[in-house]
Amino acid sequence: MAKIVVVDDETNILELIRFNLEKDGHQVLTSTGGEEGLHLIRSELPDLVILDVMLPEPDGLEICRRLRHDPATALVPILMVSARGETLDRVVGLEMGADDYIAKPFSPRELMARVKAALRRAKQNQQTSSAGRELRCGPIMLDTEKFQVVVAGQPVSFTPKEFKLLKILMSHPGKVFTREQLLDRVWGFDFNVDTRTVDVHIRYVRQKIEPNPANPIYIKTVRGIGYKFSGDNTE
């Protein structure tokens, strides 16, 4: 059983989600307002947040941004819900740090599939973090327990998606990952995201860790396939 907070100002949608989650054995806490929902999430620290985009001030995207910049909630998985299903809206939600996105109207079956996938990925991440490992390569240190990256002795801010990308690559030095594999591991296999999203996030990561992002020495492009992390990695 997971503790799940649902924030949606449409009461019929809220009750639909609550019914299906409770039917599956989860503890469900709900809110219809942005500020109230943000307070509820921060006080309860749930296992998953289901967050409507179109909320009164602040909207769901702003709430997502605030949660991702708060160390206490930075790793809580967030499933965004909205009547707007355009690609741009999905990408904006992901850039803000959402883990998945479902467009209204949705079926209870699709909702529960995405909830289960998000909880499964979160559990896998927690198992990795609980090992308290530090990944190191040259001046780069990634702390999986503290959700922290240090480059040349200086802490560097990473979004959750950027952090996951770097962690995956550093954990397997020399291994080539296709863009599809990275999409699967970071965004989830069942999420419809263009592979160019991976390229954009790789560029952001390079800007933060590479001495010269235009000529990277750590994250190498394998032409026609994907990316690999180059360098010795000691834990």
UniProtKB/TrEMBL annotation:
Annotated CDD domains: trans_reg_C
SMART domains cross-referenced by the UniProt entry: REC, Trans_reg_C
Domain OmpR/PhoB-type: 132-231
Keyword line: DNA-binding, Phosphoprotein, Transcription, Transcription regulation, Two-component regulatory system
GO molecular function terms noted in the UniProt entry: phosphorelay response regulator activity; transcription cis-regulatory region binding
A Pfam match: Trans_reg_C
Sequence ranges assigned to domain Response regulatory in this UniProt record: 3-119
Keyword check for Transcription: yes
Gene3D superfamilies: 3.40.50.2300, 6.10.250.690, Winged helix-like DNA-binding domain superfamily/Winged helix DNA-binding domain (1.10.10.10)
Entry-annotated residues carrying 4-aspartylphosphate: D52
A cellular component annotation (GO) from this entry: protein-DNA complex
GO biological process, one term: regulation of DNA-templated transcription
Residue range(s) of DNA binding per entry: 132-231
Keyword Phosphoprotein: yes
Function: May play the central regulatory role in sporulation. It may be an element of the effector pathway responsible for the activation of sporulation genes in response to nutritional stress. Spo0A may act in concert with spo0H (a sigma factor) to control the expression of some genes that are critical to the sporulation process.
Name assigned to this protein: Stage 0 sporulation protein A homolog
Origin organism lineage: Bacteria, Bacillati, Bacillota, Clostridia, Eubacteriales
